[in-house]
Amino acid sequence: MANTGVFNIDDINFLKDNQQYPELGQLQLIETQTFSSVSAVVFANMQESTYDTHFITYYFENGSHDVGIFARFGTDSSTFRDSNNHYAGPRIEGNGNGNYASTSMWGINICNLGSMQSDYDGPAFSGYIYLYDLGNPSRYSMVTSHSAYTGRSNIHSTTYYGSGSYGTAEKHTAFRLFPNTGNCSGKASLYGIRFG
User: Fold this and answer.
1) Residue 130: which of 82, 166, 162 has the closest Cα?
2) Residue 116: how many CA atoms within 13 Å on its side-chain side?
3) Which domains, ranges and CATH numbers included, belong to the chain?
4) Which site among 95, 120, 133, 178 is 20 to 30 Å from 52 CA-CA?
5) Does residue 155 register a pLDDT over 70?
6) Closest CA relative to residue 129, chosen from 50, 60, 64
7) What's the whole-model pTM score?
8) pLDDT tens across 57-75, in order?
9) 5 conformational bin, left if phi > 0, alpha if psi -120 to 50, beta if neither
């Protein structure tokens, strides 16, 4: 098959038969980062013009104790919406009791306070994040997330569900994950999903 940049129906069928042609709604890996002792993980190649929705999986380990994992939208690889640009969203955290909070804060709260430590049983924080409408300058960028981590007392696991939005309609081309204190190590993967 010649690579002319244009697929005819035979090319498409050949690629589909060999599972090399993406279908609408299918996850497409954009980037995977493995990091060690960093203060933040930045995805600067979001391909927001290509994908309607983004999906991120992550785990953090070997970092500071009693931290939270936060996120911010960015307009380029070094400009992120911070303390002057509030994010809003509800969250539900459960450790047997469960609670609810609705906040407006300086970042998107992905995980609340937990113990991020070297854990021979596995990652200290792990979860996934969906990002919506990053490439549409006339819509609010939105996020939903789910995470699991070791609680502060180190004797229970905690799960965290959250959602949020950035309160100004604008295009976002980058996304930053970071602990609120100290450094972190781990792995994160960014995927794109096309719907049309």
Assistant:
1) 162
2) 25
3) 28-193 (2.60.120)
4) 178
5) no
6) 60
7) 0.76
8) 998 875 555 577 788 888 8
9) left
